């Protein structure tokens, strides 16, 4: 490994025979194997350290409960080392599913003291909502990445137990899809709608600045609450108090209606069709078709729905002028101009048309995101050439392993092996240098947020397994 590449966080790092040096060099192969083994130990230790009796917390400090899409990503990695825990992770989450099919974005641990996390169960007050489970949860959702996670978990460790787990999960996954494509189709075109930025998973992304500008909120609102996150992370790296005041206002609007989805178009302040949410919706149908074949159900309807979702996503959210995907603000019926990593996420759809595949790859390989077969810097979550790019603040620039992993999976699906290898090397290089951090500086690769983050560990395990 050259001196110049050793200092670059996203450069080839000798993790294995595919990530540095001539394949015939035994010394490099040995060094790569040792580093890969070290990364595997670090990832497994992180997941073991964050395991609760029936689920994994994202972080012992920042996130002490169970989070929806975290659990899906975590299951993907656990399938390589603790498949029984992977299934338990998903079962625990779906045991908290609401009667209407929604899977809440937080399932609260009743053993934790009141006030240990904001916004906690007393803030959400889900018990007053029709169809809520007996245990305390939030009232919103996150991207439906669970069906692909279940399929990957089964594929990694197929067994009679995994088939039984799929049989239990299948109707619940179908109900999740039905909720999103039915009750959340506020625009009436066939796409699911976000009712809160938190539902995207990219909480304070610049993609939400325009629709959030119409949400009235006073930063003084936050004086009534005690934020938990800034006690464990630098406030300069987190959403602002004004952001949180707006988040609270949106939840209050939804909570006042007991989290009902009827009439959202006439009363709710934040309604956005998101490329990631809907790409995940389409990929879930593809995964459900495979699961259906295993459990004895008909895969045909899932394939049909997947095709419709992809076609509608292209029709509604692709902008041929910019050559990328954008969220649509249903309040104005306009595409949001910010160019964020959300625009790259439809590449996870295996049936994305060739024209859009080429356009997304052009966007990803541009100076805005820097995807390459050999990456000098990690993939950012926002256009690094934009004036509002912030390298430290959460989803406004920093690199996250989950969005990189999703894009990597999309590159594999569309047979772009060189780009996939470059992104994989960048991802593993971040963990090798900085550990299993929540997210990373998009220029230096320094670790930011929680230092022992579960989905970083889990997705690193999955990337290692593809070496």
From TrEMBL:
It comes from the Bacteria. This is Mannosylglycerate hydrolase MGH1-like glycoside hydrolase domain-containing protein. Belongs to the glycosyl hydrolase 63 family. GO terms for molecular function: Glc3Man9GlcNAc2 oligosaccharide glucosidase activity. InterPro entries: 6-hairpin_glycosidase_sf, 6hp_glycosidase-like_sf, Glycoside_hydrolase_63, MGH1-like_GH. Residues 63-456 form the Mannosylglycerate hydrolase MGH1-like glycoside hydrolase domain. GO terms for biological process: oligosaccharide metabolic process; protein N-linked glycosylation. It holds the Pfam family MGH1-like_GH.
